[in-house]
Predict the 3D structure of the following.
Amino acid sequence: MKKVGSILVSQPKPSDDNSPYFKLAQKYKIKIDFRPFIQVEQVPVKDFRKQKINILDYTAIILTSRNAVDNFFRICADLKIEVPADMKYFCITDQTSYYLQKYITIRKRKIFTGHRTAKDLLEIIKKHKTEKYLYPCSDIRKDDIPSYMDENGFTFKEAIMYRTVASDLSDLDDVYYDIIAFFSPSGINSLFVNFPDFKQNDTRIAAFGPTTAKAVQDHELILDIEAPQPNAPSMTGAIENYIKAANGLK
């Protein structure tokens, strides 16, 4: 295991000065850079219309991210749709439901919130089987929610309102990092969109979540750091454990 002196995190730089990444960099005197490998693009209204979805046919909206919230209300505004006051919102986390107040008065609406994961949210959704659900999402999304809704006979429709695309990383062509940390299969895809001939060599690959880990292996890369683990539920925790071993620290 070669020593670690530099890390590239394939996400935006944290706005919180107390981010564990900054603490990691300071504690082990290593360089940590941040660069989003993917970006979100809006689906134009003319393309959304091709999906032949009438938003007012639905009584409940499933929201799994801020991007979903922003693009749902953007499409409604562009189509001059006034969302009914009795529309129900099923949000994956408190942060997502809180973000709704950017567009609606929360205390006057029916909002249901999961704890953290899609599984948590589905436990709530299954208690509301008579609703007609619309799921604003990206063209790249996990299968868990659509599969559950289809398998259990819910009235359900996906609405692709934004797209996940590879960022331009051409300026990183000659830049080397000891570790690159990935958080989604889309990030791995972006790496090879930008650098089709990428060779791992001595770069260690870190992956968060099983689908990201699988994408690493599908691209015939060596997966050196996997999170979450029982002793490291976060990416920073998994990386720190690796640094301790690679740099000969306790």
User: Anything to note?
Assistant: The chain is about 30% helix and 25% strand.
